[in-house]
Design goal:
The protein is an all-beta fold. It has one domain. Helix content is 0%, strand content 67%.
């Protein structure tokens, strides 16, 4: 079976700094599971070529795996979720 990628909105806990920086620290999945962000490797404005959408892309390490977390201009966070077809 092929994997399909979809845009999945998630709840994010973030730290905010006096100089305006925002650092996501925890992702809460729609079923309530929580995933701490171990490290942020990169932050840049980018498009999600797999799921659609554009925003600030955080390249994160979570449980030893790299993933992209996007912050859109509508103040929503999303990840690229793999789903089985």
């Amino acid at each position: 079976m092929d994997d399909m990628i979809r845009k999945t909105y998630v709840q994010v806990t973030a730290d905010f700094y006096p100089d305006g920086r925002m650092r996501p620290t925890l992702i809460t999945w729609y079923d309530g599971r929580k995933f701490p962000i171990d490290r942020i490797k990169d932050i840049r404005r980018a498009a999600s070529l797999k799921a659609g959408g554009v925003g600030i892309r955080y390249t994160c390490m979570i449980l030893g795996r790299e993933c992209y977390l996007f912050y859109e201009e509508n103040y929503q966070w999303f990840v690229e979720e793999k789903v089985m077809r």
